[in-house]
Write a structure and sequence with these properties.
Blueprint: E1 5-7, E2 30-32, E3 38-42, E4 48-52, E5 54-57, H1 71-83, E6 88-90, H2 98-112, H3 115-120, E7 122-127, H4 136-150, E8 157-160, H5 169-182, E9 189-192, H6 196-204, E10 209-215, H7 227-234, E11 237-241, H8 270-282, H9 285-302, H10 306-315, E12 320-326, H11 335-343, H12 348-358, H13 364-367
Parallel strand pairs: 5-6, 5-12, 6-7, 7-8, 8-9, 9-10, 10-11, 11-12
Antiparallel strand pairs: 1-2, 3-4
Helix pairs in contact: 1-2, 2-4, 4-5, 9-10, 9-12, 10-11
Length: 377
Amino acid sequence: MAVGTSCLVSSTRPAPKTSSGRRRRLAPQCAAVVDGKKTTVRSKAGDVLEVCRVVNGMWQVSGSSWGRAEPAAAVDAMLRYADGGLTTFDMADIYGPAEDLYGIFINRVRRERPPELLEEIKGLTKWVPPPVKMTRSYVEDNINRSRKRMDVAALDMLQFHWWDYSNPGYLDALKHITDLKEEGKIKTVALTNFDTDRLQIILENGIPVVSNQVQHSIVDMRPQQRIAELCQLTGVKLITYGTVMGGLLTEKFLDTNVSIPFAGPPLNTPSLQKYKRMVDAWGGWSLFQALLQTLKKVSLKHGVSIATVAVRYILNQTSVAGSMVGVRLGLAEHIKDTNAVFSLELDEEDMNSITEVSKKGRNLMDIIGDCGDEYRA
């Protein structure tokens, strides 16, 4: 489906402040208009990448807590997702064998699928370095390692994470990453878990960022409070994770009480445990049940699942290009449910009913801070 662009040429609100308290007006950029199953993310420098609006998140291959399939079964599952039109995969250098599995997968696509499908496949990876001195050789060695593992000449997207903002080395790293992009080793430069202030500083330093990956769900609406405004001004897009909260936003947890031992489904993965803490901070299990009941009503109206409604709601938010749904490769598949997201149209009544319950919870910006602050407490 064709994707157009629209230029955001003005805003009635001031640009967000940086950590030093100053306001720097950033030049408006042409932002991709998301439409249908695919969209483009683009930078001020003209770097463009087409991605699927629902991204296959591969973090669950990083440990046995989610279950672990044999590599061959995992790659077979990746092929089924791609054949089903879900052609964008997200991984990281720290997600166990994720990059290696992608390398095996992409070679099978080259051998066993038509070139048209190969062109649609995108591999988005992250680099999560320790906060050491970011020399050119150190950055390049790590990028080359991911290129080798994924068996690609150029990374489709390199999403950069930084643990410690008091160490300004992230700017050095991003400048080296930008140089590597210019040399053809990376197609697009992106971020993960950066807050609004740091995103503005990075853009002011001329880094051609196309997107920032952040936690965003009906429970966690922090991205819509500050960073989405900056994204509107600059054309940077958001790719979201935690959108179905590790599986909490599903029928499985409707009408359950997880506070009573053995009375409800077990919170038996790191993701479920993490997002249960988010629910507690937001408003607790009773309010979360009210949210699930609202989502169930909407899902029955449209003949889809609760998770499908939850993803569609976030895809409808300002500056969101795509949302990740975790894939348990070789263990469970949700290809049909995921594809239902693209045809689902939530009307004004649907959106308002969900928003009403979401706003009954606490403001997580006040409790946790801006995007990514949960990793820097």
